[in-house]
Amino acid sequence: MEKKIIQLLFICYIFHELIIVSSALQVGFYAKKCRAAESIVQQEVQRSFSTDRSITAALLRMYFHDCFVRGCDASILIDSKNTRNKQSEKDAGPNQSVRGYEVIDRIKSRVESACPSTVSCADIIALATCDSVALAGGPKYNIPTGRRDGLISNPSEVNLPGPSLTVEEALKIFTNKGFSLNDMVTLLGAHTVGITHCSLIQDRISRFDGSMDSNLFTRLSKTCAARNNDPSVFLDQSTSFIVDNEFYKQIRLKKGLLKIDQQLASDRSSAGIVKNFSINPKAFQQAFASALIKLGNTQVLEGKFGEIRKNCRAFNPPAQQKKRQPRKKSFRPKNPPPRKGSKFSIPFIAP
Ligand code: HEM
């Protein structure tokens, strides 16, 4: 009898855990818990944007680099000095030039004053990115929240795609995370804003091979020859601060900078998607909104997992870490469902 009760309790426990793990993020998660949260994020992003429009690029990249490593759990925000072995994701090569941490700090500090230990750093990244995209002329979408912050940040887990991969190689990394070719081409549209350092396009400008517009080649060769340490150049040659479909037009004119960007326009698998976005701005805006929401669903910690950090750069002291990291499980970020009230309510476009 006693054995049966224990078995029953165990089944109830597993069922309870499953419900918690599979509970979905939701738009307006903080509406009751912390009414001011979303407006604080909006105000701080607006404030940053008004002095430096490049904050959109910074946040978009931070969001991607966070979500693709251990899921959207703010593991990218942990400072090395705040880990046991003095190393965090920030130390990994691809993260060295990620920026925008101060904006997240400012938001977190205000949100903590308003509602202590309530709003996760992972949600702050997602909300801030969403607001910054809208400010830069991109789609206005509602981003679901309810993520919790992770308890691990390890540079050896940072396996992000490099700029010189082929479309096929990059796609393998995206597919492993549950994204399709269409998702990948759409998300790479984030290169409609921001910069790259010359060192990352050396392979494209050291020798003219016809894959780049010749005027752009000459200009970049000169700019990048400057002896100051590793100059930076805009990824989108036309509207460098605006989230629009210009990136796709540019790569069709051989004006892509990163090898992966340029290949999207010529690779047989992706050229059609690029062409469609280049002539259909609305299709890009809708797909981009859906893809950013889907990115934000990657491997999230919810319910009783992870924690709500008090300081985004450090894990909470062990005594406060009651919640555990779930075991690594396979995951598929869900395509966002159509939601009422959002400007774009179409489902994600399948390839
Ligand atoms: C195959 C996938 C991708 C590759 C290989 C890639 C590679 C790169 C590289 C090499 C840079 C320049 C970094 C530097 O010089 O400091 C860059 C910048 C950037 N990436 Fe990506 N990226 C990819 C996907 C994405 C995605 C999915 C997003 C967002 C959704 C994104 C957003 C950005 C932004 C906004 C910048 C400019 C950052 C800034 O101005 O600080 N990238 N990317």
Using brief descriptors, characterize the structure shown.
disordered C terminus, Peroxidase, domain 2, 2 domains, single chain, membrane, mainly alpha, two-stranded antiparallel ribbon, about 350 residues, binds protoporphyrin IX containing FE, Peroxidase, domain 1, globular
Question: What features would you describe in this structure?
Answer:
Residues 24-316 form the Plant heme peroxidase family profile domain. The chain crosses the membrane at residues 7-31. There is one protein chain. It is built from 13 helices and two strands. The chain is mostly helical and 351 residues long. It has a two-stranded antiparallel sheet. Helix 10 (246-252) packs across helix 12 and helix 12 crosses helix 13. It is globular and about 60 Å long. The N and C termini lie far apart (55 Å). Protoporphyrin IX containing FE binds at residues 54, 57-58, 60-61, 64, 97, 99, 161-163, 170, 187-188, 190-191, 193-197, 200, 258, 260.
Q: Under CATH, the topology of the largest domain is which?
A: Peroxidase, domain 1
How widely separated are the two ends? 55 Å
Ligands, deduplicated:
protoporphyrin IX containing FE
Mean pLDDT: 89
Morphology call: globular
Number of strands: 2
Oligomer: single chain
Q: Count every helix, treating DSSP H or I runs of 4 or more residues as helices.
A: 13
- CATH C-level class of the largest domain is Mainly Alpha
Radius of gyration: 21 Å
Strand order of the largest sheet: 1-2
Overall number of domains: 2
Note the main sheet.
Answer: 2 strands, antiparallel
User: How much beta, percentage-wise?
Assistant: under 5%
CATH architecture of the largest domain: Orthogonal Bundle
Low-pLDDT segments: 8-23, 337-351
Judged by helices, strands and strand pairing, the structural class is: mainly alpha
Q: How helical, in percent, are the residues?
A: 40-55%
Order of helices and strands: HHHHHHHEHHEHHHH
